[in-house]
Amino acid sequence: MLVSGRRRLAALLQAQPWPFQPSRDMRLVQFQAPHLMGPHLGLEPGNGGGVINLSAFDPTLPKTMIEFLGQGEAALSVAKRALAAQLPVLPRSDVTFLAPVTRPDKVVCVGMNYVDHCKEQNVPVPKEPIIFSKFSSSIVGPYDEVVLPPESQEVDWEVEMAVVIGKKGKHIKATDAMAHVAGFTVAHDVSARDWQMRRNGKQWLLGKTFDTFCPLGPALVTKDSVADPHNLKICCRVNGEVVQSSNTNQMVFKTEELIAWVSQFVTLFPGDVILTGTPPGVGVFRKPPVFLKKGDEVQCEIEELGVIVNKVV
């Protein structure tokens, strides 16, 4: 989507009757603006509000989220001071929101991690997490377009809560896991079901990792700003119709268990993204199945985290 198109969409979102309340919650974003060179790091002072440019507060801060997270508590304390300083806010219509994390070392995904999603498929609840991945090249911003690949005729939606790692670790205990979490964001795990379920030896990777198949955003909401990540309403709408509606309390394996499990196998780095699974209501299990088509608009929303809106082209 052209930058001007993204700005128009952001302006449209601002005009929606969604709640906007300035808050002390820490909502970190990556953004671009016409008067600024390259990507910048910012704060969204309220869900649906404008953006505070962190570089204007402290020019020594990193310009990317991964570098920022790598500086740990020192960088976060600067952002907290900036939030309290009541700095000028760039209007939402003047900025282009990028994914809150771009080019992470890894994007880890979890299959069949909602009890109600397992019931939908008539399969048993997993006894161990089912792990797969997406390439980081699939990540796009919260209002970017999802491109239908000509290789697939069965592209489907999946709203998910994503965990963003803030501290490096290996063999992390579940009791220590939250110390390694920076925060949470909304993810859309776009899925080509033909490639996931029938092609490529039924390995899921290719069906999950086409370009644009991982919209993220709108903000990285820090863990101390989320009352309980495992008790949040989560929903997906296609062309305004609710197709998924559940709660993160339906997750089989919570954030702490997932981090402990995954870190047995790989080192987790700041900026790594873990998609924690999707609730029921995906298109492939409808009768008859329903898939995304050109012109559709998908909204993925999670309580306290926000909403991302992606047009299908």
TrEMBL record:
Q: What is a single molecular function from GO for this protein? A: oxaloacetate tautomerase activity
Which InterPro entries does the entry link to? FAH, Fumarylacetoacetase-like_C, Fumarylacetoacetase_C_sf
Domain Fumarylacetoacetase-like C-terminal residues, every copy = 106-313
Q: Which GO terms describe its biological process?
A: oxaloacetate metabolic process
Cellular component GO terms, alphabetical: mitochondrion
Q: What are the names of the required cofactors?
A: Mn(2+)
Q: Where are the transmembrane segments?
A: none
Pfam families named among the record's database cross-references: FAA_hydrolase (PF01557)
Q: Write out the entry's keywords from A to Z.
A: Metal-binding
Can you tell me which family this protein belongs to?
Belongs to the FAH family.
Q: What is this protein called?
A: Fumarylacetoacetate hydrolase domain containing 2A
Q: Write the gene name.
A: FAHD2A
